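dumping the sequnces here before i forget
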Amino acid sequence: MKKIKVLIGKPGLDGHDRGAKVISKALMEVGYEVIYTGIRRTPEEIVKMAIEEDVDAVGLSCLSGAHLDLFKKVSELLKEKGKDVLLFGGGIIPKEDIEILKNYGFKKIFTPDSSIKEIIDFLDNEFKSKVTN
Amino acid sequence: MNLNQKSLIDGILEGDRLIIGKAISLIENGEKEGFTLLKEIYPLKKDIFVLGITGPLGVGKSTFIDKIIEKLTDEFDKIGVLLCDPSSPISGGAFLGDRLRLKTKNENVFIRSMATRTFPYGISPSLPFIIDLFSASPYRNIIVETAGIGQGDVSIKNFSHLTLVLFSPLLGDEIQFLKGGLMEISDILIVTKGDYDIAEPFYKTLKNSISIFYNDLIPVYMISSSNGFGIDDVYNEIMKKRLDLFSSDKYLEREKIRRLETFKYLLKELYTKKMIEKIEKEGDFKEIEEGKINIYQKILDIIS
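..and the predicted 3d for all of it:
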C-alpha cells in the first residue's frame, strides 16, 4: 500500500521548530508518513534526505527571514539531483515574497494565519489520486 | 526519468541514491515490481554485515548511532542506515524522528527511515527484504535501528549479524535481567547516559547479573553519547566481534537463519495478505463480524 511521505525541513540557523513539530504530528494524525529533519540543516542535507527517503513532498519552515535564499537553494538542488517532488513552505514570510517563492517552485506558502486544516487540505488535494487506501 | 528494470538494477549495483530510494519504496509499498526487482538482484547479492541496535524508547539509540557512525565511516567506504519508528495505529501515518539526531554530512552514508506500518516487534515488515536489496548495493555495512521495543521484541536478532541492546539507567533490577527475550538476543549490552550519577550503580547491577547468570559471556559497557565516554570501547568490541564472525563459521550460521527467516517473512507478508484479501472479497468479513461464521471452522477449511 502506497503511503504518502512528507519531509518537514528546517533549513538554516532558525532554531524555532514548535510549528514544524505541530504540523508533523498533525500530518501523522491524518495518515501521512512524516520525516522531520530537525533544526539547523543545510539545503544539501535536506535534499539528501528527500532523495534517500523518496518523499512525495517537502515542506520547509523558516522563521528567521532567510527563506528566499534557503528555499531557492533547496529547490535548485532538488532539480539538479533529479528529485521530482511537491514543494511547499511556511513561516514568517512577507506577502511580497510569496510570489517569488512560487516562482522558485513552491506550490503553496503558509503564513502564521494559516490553519493546520488548510495545510492538510492542500496536501490531501494534491495526493488524493495517489493514495489507494 | 523512466525507471525500467534494467536501470533500476544498474542503479542499485552502482549505489545510485535516487534509485535506491525509489526501490525501497517499491518494496515498502508491497508492489509486485519491488519483489520482481528483488528476484532479479537475489543472485547478485554479496556478503553483508548488519549491526542491529535495539532497546526501549528514549534510551539513546539514534544518538549512539550518531557517535558510532563517525568511527564506522573511517573504517568502511559505504554505510547504510535503516531507522525504524512506529506507525500510528489510529491513522496509519507516522512521525519519523530518528534521523534528526544523525548529524553526519558524509555522502557515503545512506540513511532511510522506515515506519513499522503497525507491524509489531519494533521493525518494519519490509526490513528483511530491504537488507537483501542493500546486499546488492555498495552499502553492505548496515546499521539497523529498531523502534523503541519491549522485553519480547526479539525479531531484530534474526536479521542482524550482531545485536546491540541499549538500556538507560534505572531500567530495573536483576529480576529483569533473569527474564527471557531481550537479554538473550544481546551480543553487546550498553548502558547509556553514563554522564548521570545514577548510571554507575545500574551498570554495576547489570554487569553483576551478567556475570552470575550469563557467565560473563555478554560484554557490558557504559557509555555517554553526549560526552563520548565509552564509545571507543564499544566500537572496538564491535570490530572484534565482526572479525570473529567473518573468520569463523558464525557468519554462515547467521546467514542461514537470516535466509530462512526472510523467506518466512515473505510468506507472512505476501501470502497472508493475499489470503486476507481473498476472504474479504468473498464477503466473509461481514459475516465474521456479525458472528455468523464459526471462525475456527473457517480456518480449518482453509488450512486443510
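Residues 5-124 of chain A form a domain with the Rossmann fold fold (CATH 3.40.50.280).
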